Amino acid sequence: MNTFAYEALPEVIERRKAEGRDTINIWSAACSTGEEPYTLAMLFKEVCKGMKVKVTATDINRRVLNVAKKGVYSGRSLKDVPSMMLSKYF
C-alpha cells in the first residue's frame, strides 16, 4: 500500500492537476464486502488534499454487497489498519 500511496498516487494527482481536473474516480470491481473500497476512500482522503474523490464499488453477489452497505467490520478485517486510521475513520 505504501508504494501505491506515496509513489503511484502522487503521480495521478499531479497528472490530474496538470490537466486542470480536480476529480479522481475510482472503480473497485468485485469489491466483495467493501474493505477494499473503504480502504481506498480513507487513503485517497488522506493523500488527495484539494481533490474530489468518487469511489464506485461493485460486485455481482448481492449478499456481499449488503454486508458492504452496512460498513461494519470485524477485528480480522481491521488487523492491518494503522491505529491513526482506526481512530479517525471508525
Give a quick rundown of the structure.
The chain is α+β, with helices and mostly antiparallel strands and 90 residues long.
Q: From the alpha-carbon coordinates, what is the Rg to the nearest angstrom?
A: 14 Å
What is the name of the CATH superfamily? Vaccinia Virus protein VP39
Q: Overall pLDDT, averaged?
A: 88
CATH class: Alpha Beta
Secondary-structure arrangement, i.e. CATH architecture: 3-Layer(aba) Sandwich
- Domains, number: 1
Which bin fits the share of residues in helices? 55-70%
Work out the strand percent.
5-15%
Shape summary: globular
Strands across the major sheet, in which order?
A: 1-2
The tally of helices reads: 5
Structural class by SSE content: alpha+beta
Runs with pLDDT <50, length 5+? Answer: none
Main sheet characteristics: 2 strands, parallel
Distance between the termini: 19 Å
What fold name stands as the CATH topology?
Rossmann fold
> Element order, helices and strands?
HEHEHHH
User: Got a strand count?
Assistant: 2
What does this structure look like?
By secondary structure, the protein is of the alpha+beta class. The chain has a single domain, classed as 3-Layer(aba) Sandwich (Rossmann fold). It is 56% helix and 13% strand. It has helices at residues 2-18, 35-47, 62-70, 75-78, 83-89; strands at 23-28, 52-57. Strands 1-2 form a two-stranded parallel ribbon. The two termini are 19 Å apart. The mean pLDDT is 88.
